[in-house]
Amino acid sequence: MFTLDESEQVTHWYNVVADLPTPPPPPLHPGTREPVGPDDLGPLFPIELIMQEVTTERYVEIPDPVREVYRQYRPSPLFRARRWEQRLGTPARIYYKYEGVSPAGSHKTNTAVPQVYYNSLHGITRLTTETGAGQWGTALSYAAALFDVQCEVWQVGASFDTKPQRRTLIEVFGGTVHRSPSRLTESGKAFPEDHSGSLGIAISEAVEVAAQAEDTKYALGSVLNHVLLHQTVIGEETLRQLAKAGESAVDLVVGCAGGGSNFAGLAFPFLREKLAGTQDPRILAVEPSSCPTLTRGEYRYDFGDTAGLTPLMKMYTLGHDFVPSPIHAGGLRYHGMAPLVSHAVHEGLIDATALDQTECFEAGLEFARTQGIVAAPESSHALAQARREALAARDSGEEKVIVIGLSGHGLLELGAYDAFLGGRLEDDPLSDADLASALAGVPEV
Ligand SMILES: Cc1ncc(COP(=O)(O)O)c(C=O)c1O
């Protein structure tokens, strides 16, 4: 395990926009279709987050109260997966950066804390949000408790039904949970009550409620630039920890991508090094074959939510009313992808691939049985791809250095592992017909 001393703590988030060869296309107002300005975002976000959304500064200082909470679980450990390497018989050196040590059990706490902190500076008393796997809702609920803010969560129906313990954990931290689609919003009422839901619908519900109350704002757990910015503590720490491990050149950086935040958090500091010419890693995002946004979606302007309440973002999308099949990696069931990740993929700086969930659970089991960590179903996508690469290195005899983003633990997702162990888990890759009909709903811009 490679840790960092107090004096080596990360003090700044890294903003990849400063180093990208071409600027990412701006978000557009859903009504006027003109680039959105700070005033358009004011009803939803505090000014600090709006400024972080648009900044071109390379580094943003992490405020002291946020660093104080980070110190509870950061730096998160970087491990070398020696027993897994042996099991695979690979000459590759596999490292994994483990975000499961945070209070919520995933990387989501890294952005929940600053988001709540900035809102608390403006007297905001309530935050609304969506949650897919339940990890983000948990993280926001915990952060809200620290800064004395109420937290109201719309949890995607499919995960609300299958993960009651996530709901309980959100409530333990003081948050309130609604099954989405709920009867509390117009966006929710547009769907039958027993609908399995989607992140797009849950976002519409949370945005709708926040936009109507002065003392309430909205918090998003992924996708937006400021969220990705906060997650870069992951990659910054990893670079320092790898240096301690004696590694100066990484061959592969791999992470799972739902909305893109944990992946970007690990990958963007490596992308900085790549663009500066100090390292040349392949940077690879892994998504589920049933929600293959980067690999089969189209790069165009689309809404971030189902009801069309958010700005239009240029991103890879499967269509904002796409409802992915209820796979167990709930956090990867999002129709779009962070505009910054999308842009980097479109520019050829980052690659993407899609995997079936059974292969991911298979890798998750092997990892648990060698490293002792039960990975979140989302994170197991990164493990499965790393496994493929490690086996290819075994066959070619190459001593590759692989770095995995292990975004969270799966101790509250044991139902999913149980389904896999019991042979009840199926793959459901997106069909061409479903893809075509979902893309038909993307607006012409
Ligand atoms: C453990 C874990 N990993 C990954 C994700 C995917 O989100 P993102 O792509 O924003 O990291 C989630 C989302 O809920 C998650 O809980």
Overall outline: globular
CATH class of the largest domain: Alpha Beta
> Compute the gyration radius: what is it?
20 Å
Mean pLDDT across all amino acids? 95
How helix-rich are the residues, as a percent range?
A: 40-55%
Structural class: alpha/beta
Residue share in β-strands: 15-25%
Unique ligands: pyridoxal-5'-phosphate
- List the uncertain runs: none
Strands ordered across the widest β-sheet: 3-4-14-9-10-13
Tally of domains: 2
Would you mind describing this structure in some detail?
- With 445 residues, this protein is of the alpha/beta class.
- It folds into two domains: 33-55 and 107-221, Rossmann fold (3-Layer(aba) Sandwich), CATH 3.40.50; 64-105 and 226-439, Rossmann fold (3-Layer(aba) Sandwich), CATH 3.40.50.1100.
- Helix 4 crosses helix 16, helix 6 packs parallel to helix 8 and helix 16 packs across helix 17 (379-396).
- It has helices at 38-41, 47-54, 64-70, 82-88, 109-120, 135-146, 157-162, 164-172, 186-189, 199-211, 225-231, 233-244, 261-276, 293-296, 339-346, 357-371, 379-396, 414-421, 432-439, and strands spanning 12-14, 59-61, 78-80, 93-98, 126-131, 150-156, 176-180, 216-218, 252-256, 282-288, 298-303, 312-317, 351-355, 401-406.
- The strands form four sheets. The chain has a six-stranded mixed β-sheet with strand order 3-4-14-9-10-13, with helices on both faces. Strands 7-6-5-8 form a four-stranded parallel β-sheet, sandwiched between helices.
- Residues 106, 132-133, 135-136, 222, 256-263, 331-332, 376, 378-379, 407-408 line the site of pyridoxal-5'-phosphate.
- Pyridoxal-5'-phosphate binds next to helix 6 and helix 13.
